[in-house]
Design a protein that fits this description.
The protein is mainly α. It has helices at 2-33, 44-57, 61-74, 81-95, 97-114, 120-134, 144-159, 166-192, 197-213, 220-232, 238-258, 265-275, 284-294, 305-309, 409-419, 426-438, and strands at 337-342, 362-367. Helix 2 (44-57) runs parallel beside helix 4. The longest helix is centred in the first third of the chain and has 32 residues, at 2-33. It is elongated and about 145 Å long.
């Protein structure tokens, strides 16, 4: 019995000596790998940034902005500071809506202010323009957002000419300028069809600025044709009519030269030939540009497309040009009414039709209300000139800044009214009422009167 028990104890001891080392190898190896290496722990600012970016990816914009703002406030020296600032602006832009887009403009401009030398500043400037582009309304509505978009795209193209986003910005600028020009054209056409001297004046004021600033507008050839028709229908005597027809020929010549493939080009040539004026040769650059535009696929007008367009809040930019340099010059900002006067040394000097670079024969002068000074183009009883500066009977002066004739009854009446303002005559009351009714060219940027098309 003693030998048997001893043999069993020896066997148990042998088994334990084999099992215990094996168990140590199995469980002891995991303990060595669980010890973290120095420097591998995640930084808290990085964690906040990655968490915020993941929230933006899944459209949790409010939660994302909380994490990113916490990063900015808690870690002002973090390497993710600029990225977090830009991500907050992106979250507002992606959230959309008027409130979100407006706030994104403020955030992007803050980023440009604090980090002007980073490569991302070009992207931020582009996003500012795109935010206004997204809020742009139709041509017959408020054009303030379109004007802001034009300014911001022009700023981007002037400040970042080497950016990879330049082609996209140029195309969007063409579309924005198409919308602005379309709004001016509709108002000008409304006054043009009235056929009155006041209507012609208001129409010419807008058409001249339109054709000078936006030569890539899809209806620029029609605008030039309307200007030629306005000028060609003015004058009382034969000499006056000849002067006005010569002025009108300049606009017909621009159609032939700058829009040679236009449907109105043959009729413009006939006008020039019938009047005995030289027919210019088509510009080679204009021909190439219009040929390229004809290859751009555009939707056809149909009875279904027009009603469906009323359901969209964004303007239709399908007719915008896809080639050519858009105008990068900002518009002249000045208040007051538009007053037409002859421009250039001979009163009939026309530019090349470029984007605001040359004179087109007339200039628009702003006269402040209540200034007490007469416009520079006060009409006289002799001579010819700009029909939009003519009196209701069609008389105008071709000089650059002619003085009013003393034989003009209107000039004498204005002098009497200025001398004795306390006793206005019946004629002055009628004249002021008429001026008030026919002052159709007055406008302010962003507050344009809505005219039905």
């Amino acid at each position: 019995m003693k030998r048997t028990s001893r043999s069993r104890l020896s066997l148990l001891a042998a088994i334990l000596s084999l099992v215990l080392p094996l168990s140590g190898c199995l469980f002891g190896g995991k303990k060595k790998n669980t010890t973290p290496a120095a420097g591998n722990s995640a930084e808290p600012d990085k964690v906040l940034f990655e968490r915020g970016m993941d929230d933006i990816k899944h459209s949790r914009y409010t939660v994302a902005r909380l994490d990113l703002q916490t990063l900015i406030n808690t870690y002002p020296d973090s390497e993710y500071l600029a990225k977090a600032k830009l991500a907050i602006a992106d979250s507002y832009f992606k959230e959309g809506g008027t409130a979100g887009l407006t706030q994104s403009v403020s955030e992007y401009k803050d980023f440009i202010t604090f980090f002007p030398f980073l490569e991302e500043s070009a992207y931020a400037q582009m996003q500012v323009a795109m935010a206004h582009y997204e809020m742009m309304e139709k041509p017959d509505r408020d054009e303030s957002q379109a004007q802001l978009a034009e300014d911001e795209f022009q700023t981007f193209l002037l400040k970042h000419p080497q950016s990879a986003l330049v082609p996209v910005a140029e195309q969007h600028l063409r579309e924005v300028q198409e919308v602005i020009a379309e709004g001016d054209f509709r108002v000008a056409h409304f006054y043009y069809v009235r056929g009155t001297p006041g209507g012609y004046k208001a129409a010419a004021s807008r058409l001249i600025e339109l054709t000078d600033r936006y030569p890539l507008y899809s209806q620029s050839d029609r605008a030039l044709w309307m200007l030629g028709d306005i000028y060609g229908s003015q004058g009382r005597s034969e000499d006056e009519k000849a002067k006005f027809r010569e002025w009108a020929s300049k606009y017909y010549a621009r159609i032939v030269r700058d829009y040679p493939l236009s449907p109105l080009a043959p009729a413009a040539k006939q006008k020039l030939v019938a009047g005995g004026y030289p027919v210019p040769q088509p510009d080679a650059t204009a021909v190439a540009r219009m040929q390229k535009e004809q290859q751009v696929p555009r939707p056809r007008n149909s009875l279904v497309r027009a009603p469906l367009g009323m359901l969209h809040s964004m303007p239709d930019v399908t007719m915008a040009a896809h080639s050519g340099q858009p105008n990068l010059a900002p518009p002249n900002e000045s208040g007051g009414s538009d007053v037409m006067r002859p421009g250039g040394s001979n009163g009939m000097n026309l530019g090349s039709g470029g984007g605001g670079g040359g004179s087109n024969g007339v200039a628009v002068e702003r006269v402040e209300a209540g200034s007490g000074s007469a416009p520079a183009a006060t009409p006289s009883t002799t001579g010819t000139g700009d029909p939009s500066s003519a009196d209701p009977n069609g008389t105008a002066n071709p000089g650059a800044n002619p003085a009013p004739s003393t034989a003009d009854p209107k000039a004498s009446d204005s002098g009497k009214n200025a001398a004795d303002s306390s006793k206005p005559s019946k004629d002055s009351k009628d004249a002021s009422a008429k001026d008030k009714n026919e002052s159709t060219s007055k406008k302010k940027k962003g507050l344009r009167k809505i005219i039905p098309w």
